[in-house]
Amino acid sequence: MKLISKGRLGAILAMSVMLLVAAQPAFAATTKFGAKVAPGFDPSNAYPGTYCDHEIDGGSDTYACTWILNQAFNGGTATAPKNGTINKIKIINGKAGSFKVVIAHKSGSQFKVVARSAKVSYTTDPCSPDCSVHTYNITPLAVKTGEYVGIQAAKTSTLRCDSNGTRTALFTPPMAPGGSYTTPTEYSGCFLLVQAIYAN
Fold it and tell me: Is the peptide bond before 173 cis (omega within 30 degrees of 0)?
C-alpha cells in the first residue's frame, strides 16, 4: 500500500476545506423597505415630537392617527419588495415616545390597515453630535409585495419635516386592521423615519 506523505496529506486536507467553504451558500442580504435610515440624519423640525393634529390642520390636539409612509426618505423603498414577515424596525428619532407598527394595502388613493403590532417604546436620542439608528424587535407581521409600512401614534419624533408634499398619509381616527379602504384625512410633508426589516 502506497503511503501519502504528511505534506501531501496536508495539502489535500487544505484543498478539501477550501472546496467545502466555497460550496457553502453566501449569507443573503437583509431585505428591508421604508426609509433608508443611516447615521448622520436627524429628525429635522420634529425632535421634541410632532402631533398628527399639527400636521393635519396646525392644531395641538392629542388624538391618535395612523401615519402611512407614502414616500421613502433618502432613496429608500416605499413598498414591500416581496411576501414575507417583518420582525424588526429601524428608526431615527429625537425625544422618547411609542407607537404601534402597521402594514397597509393601497388601492387607488385609499389605504387600509391589514396588520398591527403591539406597542413599541423608543428611548430619547440626544443626537449629540449626531443621531443614531435604533433597532427594535416587533410583533412579527405578515407583509405582501407592494404593501406599505406605517405607525399609529398621536405624537412622534420619528420624522424629518424639512419640506412640503405627500410624504406621509395621515388618518384620523386610526384605522383598525381588517377595516375598509379609507381616503387620507391629510398628507404631511414630513418623512417617516421608519424602516421595516424582514425576518431571514
Answer: yes
Q: What is the pTM of this model?
A: 0.85
Q: Where are the domains of the chain?
A: 29-198
- The DSSP output letter for 33 is E
CA nearest 86: which of 134, 35, 38, 138? 138
**Through-space distance between the first and last CA atoms of the chain, rounded to whole angstroms:** 50
d(CA 18, CA 39) in angstroms, rounded, equals: 37
pLDDT along the chain (200 residues), means of 10: 52 45 55 96 96 95 97 97 98 98 98 98 96 98 98 98 95 97 98 96
Q: Is 128 helix (H, G, I), strand (E, B) or coil?
A: coil
- Coil, strand or helix: which one is 12? helix
